[in-house]
Prior knowledge:
Chain A has about 120 residues and is α/β, with parallel strands linked by helices. Chain A is about 45% helix and about 20% strand. Chain A is built from five helices and five strands, in the order βαβαβαβαβα. The interface between A and B is large, with 48 and 54 residues.
Amino acid sequence: MQQILVVDDSATMRKMVMAALRQIPNLNFGEASNGLEAIEQLAIAPFDLMVLDLNMPDMHGLEVLNFVLNHFGHHQPPVVILTTKGDEQSKRDAIAAGAASYITKPFEPRQFAQQIQHILASA
Amino acid sequence: MPQPDRHFFDDFFEDYLAECDEHLGTIRAQLLSLEPQIEQSSFTAASLQPLFRALHSLKGLSGMVGVQGAETLAHALESYLRHLRDPEVTLTAAGFEALIHGVTVLDTVLRACQRQTEMPDLAPVLAEIGAVTAPLRSPLSPLLPTVISEAEEQQIQAAQDRGDRLWIVIFTPSSALVEAGITVNRVRDRLSDPGTILAVTPQSSPTQGVTFRFIVAHPQADPPPHWQLAGVEVHPYTAPEPPDRAAAVQEMTAAPIETASSAAIAPTLVRVDLHKLDEVMEQVAELVMSRVQLSSQIQQLRGQVPTATWRHLNGISRTLEQQLRELRTGVLRVRLVPLTDTFKRLEFAARELARTMGKAVQVVVEGDGTELDKVLVDRMIDPLIHLVRNAVSHGIEPVAVRRDRAKPDRATLTLRASTAGERISLEIEEDGGGIDPAVIGARSQALHLAPPSPLTTDSLDPDLLLSVLCTPGFSTQDQPDLTSGRGVGMAIVRTTVQELGGHLSLRSTPGQGTCFRIDLPLTLAITDALIVTVGDRSFAIPQATLRELFPLAPQDRPAPTAPALLPYRDGLLPLVTLHHRFHLPPPPPDRTLVVIVVAVGALTLGLLVDRVVSQSEIVVRPLQDPLVQGSGISGATALGDGTIILILDVASLIHQTLLTPSDRAPAP
């Protein structure tokens, strides 16, 4: 079983992401509605991949990304940024900071699942 | 990027609409709070953040479910807000208007989508938003919270100036704590009530792993005991260490907490599908029915079983009744939602319309914490918006007219809610011109709508007036406009209110203003009622409408056919003989009957019945058939012995009797 952490302040969006990823066999999901909660979850249990939204209250996704990359060392999972389209600057920032991939909403569920599967396989 | 396979996310459509509703609530509230900042240089980009994020989330979700209209519109609004972040840019009146208009259309789009009706044309509003956005220079790079340590320092300074004590709270999460329900979210909620979180930073060290460092302000000398949770350490805040920017960046401090949004997902809240609650309510209703049957059987056993056994059985039945009542109240409470959001929507609609019509309106809200069944709230929102729009467009006079009448330029629109027992009343009141019966009467004749009886200038019977206003096809506008004038609104308002077992009434003083009042039951499903017999039939009278009962001797009984008035207290009580009303055999002339006094609002009526049988909890089965609507019957219910009886629609009986005593109006 591989563990996926889905971080988004929208509960509906988290459900959609998980529904799309259920096409991949043997996945388990953790959910977080904000950056602090995501960091807490990563601190207490290992995850194989994190799907991370950018625009969230309290802590911006890029801050979460930076913290995760700086503080979890080699335990850090690949981070896939999943954000609403139209933020080219943040795309450059995220990739430069070390995100494994940058995917925009709306996403096509099958294609999204394939991309995630690919990242999981190569990690 | 290809459009998503729409059907894949079909299952989430309800979730989508519910979440959009929440975002729209935030957007409206935030937008209203921006109004004082129009043309102000003190405008801060940070104050846009919650608004921006709500629009952004709504846009993202709309894209996922393929509601392109909402996606496009949210994008346009968001884009304008992005420009506004530039400190050189001020929010203009035109810009604010474009935002308000945009959000109003966004609401319409989502509603159309929910009801699968035609989408509004987006071109005009997109052009309006485009026109205010275009002159601004290209937006700054996407938002990242501004340099955090500065904001943090300001917050700390402000808290110290207020005289608050500052604390450093360190929380070290662990899997054991999470299992015990102690999470960073829970700690944050505890610290913000009571207390104000100024900043929170995740930190990590090789020895301790990840910790969260909160800076919290609290007015008292000691930290509240409430903060003491496992894994939490509280230390007094010490003077700031010399700022080490490099280290600060390394530590990745987070933005100051926005109190409004920190409740995004409070761990103690569960979102429940309303249908599931309906099912639970249905189960409770079934239970109540079974209990009533059980109790009825137990009553019949009396004398047939040993007294001690019977008492014991009866005792259990009584306990069961009490427990069921508590269960019912519990389920009902779950279904109740405060009217806060609804009133915000009404306020928003009123301000938006006032702005377009060039009227000055101040909105006063009273009792917006009053709670009402979610289903009723959803059904009432359109009628309420209609009444509010009418109040602004027809009720409130243009500024010039108000000046002539020596009234303040700024009109007052009051939205009021209150509860009494199991009923709630909603009022929409303005200090406008009032309704002129002569105008309404003339208009009604011009439209060839036969009024129930002539309206004259000097007689102002509010119920009569209301009845004309609610006649389908009645409108004071020659040309329908966007806001009103199609002549269907008031008819729908009254029908909806009646369908929900409520009552609409009107109070208007020419020159001084108008108030529409809606009385509604707090919930629909189960209620207490008095069971009475009329001839060979039984009827249920909802307890909420009861005032008192008294016997009526045969010699005092008026003729059953004529509308009658009985001396009652200091005045006269209109009396309806239910035998006659429902075409049942008349009562024997020598029998003492019972008068049941019922009231809705200030209107009181006597109902003449043969006798009162019992008081019982009844499960209301509404009768939706249009043939039954307005007939004086609101639904049916089953008694303990399985007999089906009809429930009196007291509001409509009162309305019909007091409105047209001799010539009963047809169903509206």
